[in-house]
Amino acid sequence: MDWDAFAKLGAQMAEWGADYHRTLADRPVRAPLTPGAVAAKFPATPPEKGEGMDGILAELDEKVVPGLTHWQHPRFFAYFPSNATPPSMLADFAASILAQQCMLWQTSPAGTEIETLMMDWLRQGLGLSEGFKGVIQDSASSATLAAVLVMRERALEWQGNKQGLSGQQRLRIYASDEVHTSVDRAIWIAGVGAENLVRIPTQGPTRGMDPVALKAAIAADRAAGYLPAGVVACIGGTGTGACDDLTAVLQVAQDEGLYSHVDAAWAGAAMICPEFRSLWTGIEMADSLVLNPHKWMGVQFDFSAHFLKDPEPLVKTLAIQPEYLRTHGKDGFVNYSEWSIPLGRRFRALKMWFVLRAYGLEGLREVMRDHVRWCQELAAELGADPRFEIVTEPVLALFTVALKGADDAAMIDYVNRVNEDGRIYVTQGRTKGRIVMRFTVGSFACTAEDVRLGGDVLKEMAG
Ligand SMILES: *Cc1c(COP(=O)(O)O)cnc(C)c1O
After folding, report:
1. Residues with Cβ < 8 Å from 433, sequence gap 6 or more?
2. How many angstroms separate the alpha carbon of residue 142 from the centre of ligand 1?
């Protein structure tokens, strides 16, 4: 492909993309579930001879688009959002064109320095103190794994990477049962073992872990010969938006000398709005925290913001410095591959720059404030309808709801009917021992009208 053809197809691609988004609201949100239907449109064997790119956009429309669940749809109320705003799409295109490999300062001075700067802009936007240093990770899962590895190495006095875990004292890590499954997986992968993830009971309307129970569990483990290593707290848990009381929980971690990590993957982005920050009061005591601008800030996947009070323990855990990766004579420059598990790194900082430049913090705040308000209005409306029961009240823009008197099977059936209708898309969840419907507002394309329509669909399907 020559560059003239690239320029032409690139312009056509942009037009095709704008058309896709202009017509998105008219499509069913979730793809029809017929396994194998997409793959059947492709030949089973790879082309021997190049076919060129003629007709590729038509093929995208014909073979790919019908099999999509439309994450950018204005009435996507499922999971958590995964917003891609137009500026972030353009930035991702630019990053693909420049195709930087940002593993060391030397391999991309601009990639590295803009990453440092963008993470500092974000830090300021979130109201975090200057002490926090940021790095972009590919996902919250990776950030949490990195934090758990730090917990392990720090507790083992940096001997785990060297000697392995057999023969070491058994580590313990503490979390509530509201944390995301990425915490479980981090525990498995780090070799800590699922049995050593100690679940602390939750309490109160915010479903946060009981700090007294946390302290008692740590003491009991020490007495039993275990080695407590860290605490993973959550703000805006995936199921129902559960929030730990960070002031109390992080104080226990600090008193006990344990490393702390806060998973605020979804809710963290909303902390750019000062009025929501009471949700994470105490965050300044965290050693490590992660939030996903790729969920609710319009900076498309992948972009996880991992902040560290002191990057040293992370670098001490993850840095490999073979001779060929050393930046001779340039010591003092940040090499972000030493802060993350993959060595190679894309130029992700461009996305944050484009988005902040286009929207400004104030523009982003307006979007999130609307989502929160519309979501809370809908929860109040459904709560007043005798057919519905709000199971967990809104945390920012997430609530869970059930049909009154419906058992689990009836709820699953209800959620399926809502999704098969196609006008909206929601997910089911389990809380307080029962199946509920999760409803979260977060698409940047969403309007008040879309949320109203969402409510209409829920009522219509409730019969
Ligand atoms: C979405 C989510 C994650 C996982 O995020 P990835 O970036 O996909 O790894 C982790 N924790 C919480 C609370 C989440 O909502």
Report:
1. none
2. 10
The CATH architecture annotation of domain 363-462 reads Alpha-Beta Complex (3.90)
| Segment 4-50, tens digit of pLDDT | 999 999 999 999 999 999 999 999 999 877 899 999 999 999 999 99
Question: Does ligand 1 have an atom closer than 6 angstroms to the CB of 261?
Answer: no
Residue whose CB lies within 8 A of the most ligand 1 atoms, among 178, 183, 263, for a mutation test = 263
- For tokens 């949490």, the residue is 144
Q: What topology does CATH give the domain 1-64?
A: dopa decarboxylase, N-terminal domain (1.20.1340)
Q: For 404-424, how does the pLDDT look when each residue is reduced to its tens digit (9 = 90+)?
A: 999 999 999 999 999 999 999
Instruction: Sheet with 133-137: list strands edge to edge.
Output: 133-137, 304-308, 288-291, 259-263, 227-234, 171-176, 197-200
How far is CA 279 from its chain centroid?
17
The pick from 181, 182, 185, 207 for probing ligand 1's pocket by mutation, whose C-beta has the most ligand atoms within 8 angstroms, reads 182
Ligand 1 close to Cβ of residue 139 (< 6 A)? yes
Distance 113 CA to ligand 1 centre (A): 26
The 10s digit of each residue's pLDDT in 297-317 is 999 999 999 999 999 999 999
The reply to whether ligand 1 has any atom less than 6 angstroms from the CB of 265 is yes
Residues 291/122, Cβ–Cβ less than 8 Å: no
Q: 237 C-alpha to center of ligand 1: Å?
A: 9
Alpha-carbon dihedral angle through residues 21, 27, 28, 33, given to the nearest 10 degrees: -90
Architecture of domain 94-354: 3-Layer(aba) Sandwich (3.40)
**Which string of DSSP letters, residue by residue, matches 415-431?**
HHHHHHH-S-B-EEEEE
In the chain, where are the structural domains located?
1-64, 94-354, 363-462
Give the mean model confidence (pLDDT) for residues 158-172: 95
Nearest Cα residue to 175 out of 223, 267, 242, 266? 242
pTM: 0.96
DSSP-H helix ranges across 23-167: 56-59, 86-98, 109-126, 140-155, 160-163
Give start and end residues of each alpha helix (H) in 384-447: 408-421
Whole-number Å distance between alpha carbons of 234 and 224: 27
